[in-house]
Amino acid sequence: MEPIENDALRTHDARGPGFEQIVGQSAALEAVLQQVERVAPTTSTVLIQGETGTGKELIAQAIHNVSPRCGRPYIKLNCAAIPFDLLESELFGHERGAFTGAIAQKVGRFELADKGTLFLDEVGDIPLALQPKLLRVLQEQEFERLGSGRTHKVDVRLVAATHRDLPEMVRRNEFRSDLYYRLNVFPILLPALRNRRADIALLVRHFVDIFSRRMGKKIDHIPEETLAAFQSHPWPGNVRELQNVIERAVILSDGGLLPVLPLPTRTEPTTPVPVRSTLKESELTLIMEALKLADWVLGGPNGAAARLGLKRTTLIGRMKKYGICRPSQDLDRYRVLKAGSTFTPFSTV
Questions:
Q1: Which structural domain, as residue segments, surrounds residue 167?
Q2: Of 3, 195, 226, 308, which residue has the fewest beta carbons closer than 10 angstroms?
Q3: pLDDT, tens digit, 9 for 90 and up, residues 91-131
Q4: What is the pTM of this model?
Q5: Does the N-terminal peptide bond of residue 212 adopt cis geometry, omega within 30 degrees of 0?
Q6: In b/e form, how buried is each residue of 319-341, taking b as 16+ CB within 10 angstroms?
Q7: Are residues 37 and 151 in the same domain?
Q8: Is 150 in the same domain as 237?
């Protein structure tokens, strides 16, 4: 087998450091990475959504790596892995004696991430009772440790991720709407592996290389029928499931040959969040949201261009590109496009 690691990563070499762990060259993945490059230089909050196992943590790391905060702290916390009675302390810290068992002062994740990036994975699992405190630190960049009245100021860029349907949770009063809108400044929707099949062969070779090196095995050949089986499987567990299958296959390999493993019977995966198929639709959504927030004012410090980090002339060019003009009939046409129908571009502002 030819050397595989460089081949697997070749697509992203041109982007420079920061994307080394992201493997693939499909159009769906390329659209996501373009969004990462667009938002990384800003301080805006990013909400990464997608099914379990799609690589949300890798995207969060890439946002930090190519941002001006690279080299500053990058702090991670899986909100679903921390018991409720400890999560507040993990986020904001506590003073000695703040509660039973608090025998020493503890610095929270927000304080540790000062001047850097905080990645909150599974943010949809944060309890309702704790959400107002998270909203406050996002809005005001300040908080108090448990058991202390002293206010701490921080400069933290937040990247959050979830596989849950937050709008549906808001509808069921399981997640605060104001916190959702504060998190959803720049949404990035990751495609499921079944929607980026062009990347499966690269991922297989990438994981084979990793695990064969780790186990001291030499894999010289991946049979075509093995690759075909991988590419036809629906992968409900996405990249994480594929990685686990490749690790098992390397363990069972003999004579430098990657074996064909029986894969689970196909089950229809649930898709908790919609996945936009093109960068065009994602960019169009962001522009429309910025225009509505700015009440269709393009320039100035509070205008749509400033909200998007663009020059006013650049924004006007994008609006012409997508046929965007002022309401009301134009918003109806935008809704039609977002729903997947085609329309004829119309005059711009």
A1: 27-189
A2: 3
A3: 998 888 878 888 888 999 999 999 999 999 999 999 999 99
A4: 0.72
A5: no
A6: beebbbbeeeebeebbeebeeee
A7: yes
A8: no
